[in-house]
Amino acid sequence: MSYQKPIPLKTQDNQPYWDAADRHELVLQKCETCNSYNHPPGPACSKCGSTELSWESQGSAITGTIYSYVVSYRPFLPGFQDDLPTIIVVVQLDNLKEVKIIGNVLACPPEEVKIGMPVKMTWQDITEDRALPQWIQA
Amino acid sequence: MATIKDRYAIVGVGESERSKNSGRTPLHLALDAARAALKDAGLEAREIDGFMSYSENDSCTSHQLATYLGARPKYVKDIMGGGSSTEMLIADAIGLIETGQVNTVLIYRAMNGRSGVRMGGGGWDVNMLQGAMDGGSFFIPYGAGGPGQWFGLFATRHMQQTGLTHEHLGHVCVSFYEHAQRNPKAFFYGKPLSMEEYLKTPSLSYPFNKHDFCLESDEANAIIVTSAEKAKDCKSRPVYIMGIEARRTVSHAHYWTNLDEVASDFVAPSLYKKAGVTPQDIQVASIYDCFSWVVLRQLEAYGFAARGEVGDFVASGNLKMGGKLPTNTAGGMLSEGYTHGMNNVLEIVRQIRHEYKGTDRQVENCEIGICTGWSGPDIAGAMILRN
Question: Does B205 lie at the interface with A, CB-CB under 8 angstroms?
Fold first, then answer.
């Protein structure tokens, strides 16, 4: 069955991130002026406004801890009705604590999710050529 | 720079009928609210030379409203906005009056928030959402498509950090629902909420259950702002603006990562400085309440309780009538109705005028009140008003 949920839209500003995700790799936008990481990425640095931006690969072994979460018992978007409840998390990266990434924790009972829980990134192949960064318990 | 303290006033407030299915256009609702506010102020439509509104593309225009009131204003302005926009537009109106461009401004919010475009989501095109929201591609694909989830992500972290419990959220709901029982126009009039019932209600988007969410309603509200000088000619008792402060932007409204930095934290100090008062001087409050938790975070930001003590503050009944800070005394957006913040403005104006004098709805001897708007960590507006 085809994938029913929203597929990340590639745009001028985020294409390198999603292209890397399709290769099961995490890349982050970095500001060359103030050295901060920009996530989600944008047309300029959200901290200082600089347009001196580059993309830095973080590889494929990404770990983090849950910074915050919600457990959603209702599908607020199409495609989510079949796997409720949905655990939506903000993950703080272990190696780059300033970077936080929103995703789902897969295959996790809702009563187990808690702030501080260690997780690792996994890539869910959602179409023939697209993959979605996700998280599982570490 | 001129100080605006006490030099501008809200002189009229009015609302349309409130329902879940108005069967009428936002323009009709806006006309009802505007006529009610004009009547309240004792003004004619032709005396209004500025019309302003905010919407999420779900309303009529200021031009239309003015047209069908038979007014020919100098100035119309429609912005995209939500919570905090009322305060921002009042600040704009003051600037226009101060510089002599207009004399009197009517600000409104009209929406079929239940039967028309619903904030609570559903029916939106997901690709449109990804494009319309900053960083949308980084949360929409994960199912984070509604305010309950965005605010929930913020709340869970803040609750864990400060020791706030689910029951503390419940105290906000129970307090506001209690107020709604004295307000026959409130949606949940006749539907009180006990803590027991709150606690046994299943989660919709943990940490929130349905009581933590604001209502969706079809409704319009309007307020009229003018100079203190012109206010003397109005029929109503003016409510003076002691200070107003709006918007401080932090990055990424829907991709919230710094929980220690919400816009209200930046608005509060300059607001109190402008008004020349402290939180201890405030006797009544309207605190933006799209979700119960948002009230708690703002009580912290505006200095009504220290970080970590907000839960005790609400558990002690301080938001109720007779408490230290009776808040959202018509029921708020959680239980009265929802016009993206404006119904809370109407209520605080009525409290400060002592319009409910002699009834159990009146906060005794309230002279100074605060009204806050918030639509996320990135935008806040607030004002302090006096009799």
Answer: yes
